[in-house]
Specification:
By secondary structure, the chain is α+β, with helices and mostly antiparallel strands. It has helices at about 5-10, 15-25, 35-45, 45-60, 75-85, 90-105, 150-155, 160-170, 180-195, 240-255, 260-265, and strands at about 65, 70-75, 110-115, 120-125, 140, 200, 210-215, 220-230. Helix 6 packs antiparallel against helix 10 (about 240-255).
């Protein structure tokens, strides 16, 4: 859904462009197609205004109309922009050999993430060769409170930023194991700082266990993280200390490139 901004944030913005962006933000994994009426209702825009904006976005390739259903979906132009954005992130290519080494040594899934607007932004994922993956993880967004990567980064953000993120996004339950109270989450973040890594024990997805270590900038603020993820059966407790050590070494190397991660470029949460 489109984000709300206060008056100071809205100063100087072009209203029609913002409305067009709000239309694009209506689409999600659960709502990949929307009708004109649905978009108009979601945004509380008049249908005539919504139609004009949609036609402009469709003409430019940012929306695609299904001629059978008359519904709209995101256009292929966005896929092209996604490719162009990925090529502008050299830090991901720099990190790839290190991620591949982790994946080969553990045999598990390895994720590289950053954070954006108080959420986890997935940059890359490496999978075991025997697992068939039919989609790219790049660009996926998840909450910070229920993922090991998110918690590891959240633990190394200033307290006021932690409070802002919790207030903005809440602590929605994803599984029976999800932390859903601020007190419990803050206690968990303190424990992460003590041990240096975060664990997700079926908190975001059932039967999935993850361990993550943050990548810190020169001020000790988290700008990214790397995780090792697998099934609860495979990710045995006695393996975690070794995984944490491998992750810590890799993150220490990548901390030299901290300024190249998305959080360093656009997020207020990497600044004091």
């Amino acid at each position: 859904m489109p984000q709300k901004h206060n008056d100071s944030e809205n100063a100087g913005l072009v209203a029609s462009v913002q409305k067009a962006m709000n239309i694009l933000n209506c689409f999600s994994t659960t709502q990949p197609q929307l009708s004109l009426a649905q978009i108009s209702s979601l945004l509380a825009y008049p249908k005539s205004t919504t139609l004009n904006l949609i036609r402009t976005l469709e003409h430019s390739g940012y929306l695609l109309k299904d001629q059978k259903t008359q519904n709209y979906s995101l256009g292929y132009k966005i896929l092209n922009l996604s490719y162009l954005l990925r090529t502008s992130l050299p830090v991901v290519q720099y990190a790839m050999p290190l991620l591949e080494d982790l994946q080969q040594k553990t045999g598990e899934i390895v994720y590289l993430v950053s954070h954006l607007d108080g959420q986890v932004l997935y940059l890359e994922g490496l999978y075991p060769s025997q697992r068939m993956v039919n989609y790219s993880i790049s660009g996926k967004i998840l909450p910070m409170h229920c993922t090991s990567c998110g918690k590891s980064m959240l633990a190394y953000l200033p307290r006021e930023k932690q409070d802002e993120i919790i207030k903005r996004w809440g602590l929605p339950r994803r599984t029976p194991n999800t932390i859903t109270t601020k007190e419990e989450l803050l206690k968990e973040l303190e424990a992460i700082q003590v041990r240096g890594y975060a664990i997700d024990l079926e908190e975001e997805t059932p039967n999935v266990k993850c361990i993550s270590v943050p990548i810190l900038n020169s001020e000790g603020i988290a700008v990214a993280a790397i995780s090792i993820s697998g099934t609860v059966m495979n990710m045995k407790d006695d393996l975690l200390p070794g995984y944490a050590e491998m992750l810590s070494r890799t993150c220490a190397v990548l901390s030299n490139q901290a300024h190249e991660f998305p959080a360093s470029k656009v997020s207020i949460y990497c600044q004091r």
